């Protein structure tokens, strides 16, 4: 498969004392996945473990992307974060409280738009707003809904119904609806994968701008390496399933105010991209079979591809740092 990727250059591992040495403190953890597992009954009174002992803390305002091959359990992790599924073990803590079931604190945007077809754009968003603020006067509900609609660039389309909207516009309504309830975390499962490339790029720009401006905390699943590089502060790499693990957490070294059109000129861009592609092409499989010595699922390796092309990639781990 790597022969299909002639431009991939393997990142050289070089220790970077700044990477991975800072373990997130309890006060920094806004959302925390703590030791979750998901198991299903298998034939012969056996059990299939999709993943287990999965730990992931997230800071307030952080944009976290999860990448991994099909079947490693990404959607399951997102469903557990949403409260749509319960973990077989472990817990999810949001702002200091263990979650139990769904909540308007955690808004989900799926690939499909799931809009109410008989309601207008305004009606769809206002419905969500009124679920959040049940006793709010109608004027306030409309004002909040209109603000969210304007944020995603749909002002003027408030009275259209979903059947009158393009796929990109429908997804914008989905985003407006999620943002309108001011969730603590926005959960997105490949939200742009059904869109054409141009619309996808525009919506990525919008989501990025909104999240930076509002400090929204986001957990997003994607198969698109470039999307993860553009949007994420950290990228969680899952090994192949079953018994998938968090292989690494990659810190995005690119500046927060990154510009899509200039991304490929940014120092560190190719080291980061190559690292992610290398992982998907081969390491996601080899690491599933054998994690490195000293691997600690509670503190998976933190990787920060170097800012300098010359340095290529910088790799260190909490555990290695502790041993040093
Ligand atoms: N109800 C179920 N019973 C048994 N196995 C299930 C059930 N639901 C999901 N699985 C299995 O759990 C695994 C993880 O599924 P999940 O959808 O979370 O993976 P994913 O990484 O999101 O995949 P994709 O990228 O294809 O969406 C899959 O192998 C799937 O077959």
UniProtKB/TrEMBL annotation:
UniProt keyword annotations, A-Z: ATP-binding, Cell membrane, Membrane, Nucleotide-binding, Transport
UniProt GO cellular component terms: plasma membrane
The organism's place on the tree of life at top rank: Bacteria
Compartmental location: Cell membrane
ABC transporter domain segment(s): 31-265
Source species: Methylorubrum salsuginis
An annotated Gene Ontology molecular function: nitrate transmembrane transporter activity
Family: Belongs to the ABC transporter superfamily.
Entry annotated with the keyword Phosphoprotein: no
PANTHER family, alphabetized: NITRATE ABC TRANSPORTER ATP-BINDING PROTEIN, TAURINE IMPORT ATP-BINDING PROTEIN-RELATED
Primary localization: membrane
UniProt topology in membrane: Peripheral membrane protein
Keyword Isomerase included in the entry's annotation: no
Name by which UniProt lists this protein: Nitrate/nitrite transport system ATP-binding protein
């Amino acid at each position: 498969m790597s022969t299909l990727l002639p431009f991939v250059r393997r990142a050289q591992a070089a220790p970077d004392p700044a990477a991975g040495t800072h373990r997130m403190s309890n006060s920094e953890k806004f959302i925390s996945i703590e030791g979750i597992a998901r198991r299903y009954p298998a034939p012969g009174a056996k059990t299939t473990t999709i993943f287990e002992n999965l730990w992931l803390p997230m800071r307030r305002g952080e944009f976290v992307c999860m990448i991994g091959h099909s079947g490693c359990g990404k959607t399951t992790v997102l469903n557990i974060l949403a409260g749509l599924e319960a973990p077989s073990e472990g817990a999810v803590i949001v702002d200091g409280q263990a979650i139990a079931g769904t909540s308007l604190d955690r808004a989900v945007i799926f690939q499909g738009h799931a809009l109410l077809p008989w309601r207008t754009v305004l009606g769809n968003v206002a419905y969500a707003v009124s679920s959040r603020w049940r006793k709010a006067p109608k004027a306030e509900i409309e004002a909040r809904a209109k603000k969210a609609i304007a944020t995603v660039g749909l002002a003027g389309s408030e009275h259209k119904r979903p059947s009158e909207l393009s796929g990109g516009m429908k997804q914008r309504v989905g985003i407006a609806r999620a943002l309108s309830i001011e969730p603590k975390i926005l959960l997105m499962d490949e939200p742009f994968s059904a869109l054409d490339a141009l619309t996808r790029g525009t919506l990525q720009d919008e989501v990025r701008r909104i999240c930076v401006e509002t400090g929204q905390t986001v957990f997003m699943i994607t198969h698109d390496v470039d999307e993860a590089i553009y949007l994420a502060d950290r990228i969680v790499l899952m090994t192949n399933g079953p018994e998938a693990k968090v292989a690494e957490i990659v810190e995005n070294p690119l500046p927060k105010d990154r510009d899509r059109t200039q991304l490929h000129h940014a120092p560190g861009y190719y080291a980061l991209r190559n690292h992610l592609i290398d992982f998907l092409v081969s390491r996601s499989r080899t690491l599933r079979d054998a994690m490195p010595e000293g691997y600690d699922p509670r503190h998976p390796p933190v990787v920060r591809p170097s800012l300098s092309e010359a340095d290529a990639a910088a790799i260190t781990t909490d555990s290695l740092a502790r041993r040093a």
